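Bug #77: duplicate submission created two jobs. Keeping one. Sequence:
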Amino acid sequence: MSFVPDESIYELWLEDILEIKPSIDDRLEAIPNFIQFYWKTKELLKQASRIVIKLKKEHEATLVKNIFKKSSDLTSLSTIVNPSILRLIEDEDKAGMDELGSVFKSRGE
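Kept job's structure:
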């Protein structure tokens, strides 16, 4: 997931793909692909865990710093984040979503 600051939205994209071949004859070809896919997934999970731990530490530090301040002196989250909500209206907006395809391409491509 990636935040796009100019548009205040999050974009999802495909990091990797794993093709599963059910034939026993393809097992030697499939094993390196499985290892590569799961290794990359492990690394992405480690990265996400580090980010969450860092965010938790920042949150705890901010709580300690602001524990004795009046709530009127604190910055509200709604002033920092645009609380716009994307809502798909079933008849209008959802029509044609399946035509977009399964692979996301960024606007720059």
